[in-house]
């Protein structure tokens, strides 16, 4: 769906932000982009969305050169939720936010259904009349999200949508993204949260100093400890724990989630028992469970 070929971008001579980026994003892929601040993640998303134009190289969207497309044409295909949701909020109600762009594209009678579908998807239908800036951060992100979804793009890009969120707000947003991905949407998300990347992403791209240094499945990328350290990225805690355990137990691979590590350890329960260790599972509700290696 998206192809970046020899993409370069600089804000002014001598300050190159993107350096020869070559990437292909396929349909219905859930991609996470990671990297330290200043690595070029946001600049790359802005180039893809048309908010910035490549200094050199090209971006193809469904076979069309975005350099020859207007921002409105690109926005019909790509919805972009920026890092600061407050910069995308300016209407008096949640409903009006979601309807704003549609007023310039659709007949008035066609707008309510589109808006209500988008608000239902993000779980804001009951807050349709609320004042957006007065909402909690998670709901402000979801309001912007609804305005993007109402436009009907097949590709959703999000720049750190879970930054500053409570654990509950983070999971609410990620559950929405997971649902959209199952429905066929292509998701591209920037985040510093590697546990979220491990749990949700099909593909993890790591950037450093404007270049892509790692690209692959999260399980494969997290094996590249030296390259990750050089890019300032730490694998999730559970992955680091399983890596250390492999020094003592012949696990097949590093785990990405606590549940995955627990399943791996079950095969070694007899060995661990002979060594005086045991694995116990503690239920803490429908969504949260923990496994303890005593």
Short characterization:
With 294 residues, the protein is α/β, with parallel strands linked by helices. The chain has helices at 41-49, 71-75, 94-99, 111-122, 137-149, 167-182, 194-200, 218-221, 225-230, 237-245, 258-266, 269-274, and strands spanning 2-12, 15-25, 30-34, 56-61, 64-65, 78-81, 155-159, 186-190, 203-208, 211-216, 279-283, 289-293. β7 (155-159), α6 and β8 form a beta-alpha-beta unit.
Give the SSE map:
Blueprint: E1 2-12, E2 15-25, E3 30-34, H1 41-49, E4 56-61, E5 64-65, H2 71-75, E6 78-81, H3 94-99, H4 111-122, H5 137-149, E7 155-159, H6 167-182, E8 186-190, H7 194-200, E9 203-208, E10 211-216, H8 218-221, H9 225-230, H10 237-245, H11 258-266, H12 269-274, E11 279-283, E12 289-293
Parallel strand pairs: 3-8, 3-9, 6-7, 7-8
Antiparallel strand pairs: 1-2, 1-4, 4-5, 9-10, 11-12
Helix pairs in contact: 4-5, 5-6
Characterization of the model:
Residues 286-294 have low confidence and may be disordered. It is built from twelve helices and twelve strands. A six-stranded mixed sheet has the order 6-7-8-3-9-10, sandwiched between helices. A four-stranded antiparallel sheet has the order 2-1-4-5, covered by helices on one side. It is α/β, with parallel strands linked by helices and 294 residues long. The chain has helices at residues 41-49, 71-75, 94-99, 111-122, 137-149, 167-182, 194-200, 218-221, 225-230, 237-245, 258-266, 269-274; strands at 2-12, 15-25, 30-34, 56-61, 64-65, 78-81, 155-159, 186-190, 203-208, 211-216, 279-283, 289-293.
């Amino acid at each position: 769906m998206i192809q970046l070929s020899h993409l370069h971008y600089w804000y002014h001579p001598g300050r190159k932000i993107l350096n020869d980026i070559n990437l292909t994003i396929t349909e219905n892929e859930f991609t996470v982009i990671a990297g330290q601040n200043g690595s070029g993640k946001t600049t790359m998303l802005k180039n893809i969305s048309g908010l910035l134009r490549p200094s050199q190289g090209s971006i193809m969207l469904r076979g069309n050169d975005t350099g020859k497309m207007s921002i409105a044409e690109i926005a019909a295909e790509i919805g972009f939720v920026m890092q600061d949701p407050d910069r995308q909020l300016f209407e008096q109600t949640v409903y009006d936010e979601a309807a704003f762009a549609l007023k310039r594209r659709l007949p008035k009678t066609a707008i309510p259904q589109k808006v209500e579908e988008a608000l239902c998807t993000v779980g804001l239908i009951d807050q349709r009349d609320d004042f957006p800036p007065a909402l909690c951060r998670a709901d402000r992100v979801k309001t912007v999200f609804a305005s993007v979804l109402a436009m009907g793009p097949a590709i959703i890009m999000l720049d750190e949508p879970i930054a500053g969120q409570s654990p509950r707000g983070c999971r609410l947003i990620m559950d929405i993204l997971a649902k959209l991905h199952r429905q066929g949407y292509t998701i591209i998300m920037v985040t510093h949260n590697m546990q979220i990347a491990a749990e949700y992403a099909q593909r993890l791209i790591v950037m450093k100093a404007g270049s892509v240094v790692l690209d692959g499945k999260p399980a494969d990328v997290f094996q590249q400890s030296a390259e990750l350290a050089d890019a300032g990225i730490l694998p999730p805690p559970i992955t680091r724990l399983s890596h250390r355990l492999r020094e003592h137990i012949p696990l097949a691979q590093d785990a990405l989630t606590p549940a995955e590590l627990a399943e791996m350890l079950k095969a070694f329960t007899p060995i661990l028992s002979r060594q005086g260790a045991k694995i116990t599972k503690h239920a803490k509700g429908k969504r949260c469970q923990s496994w303890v290696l005593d």
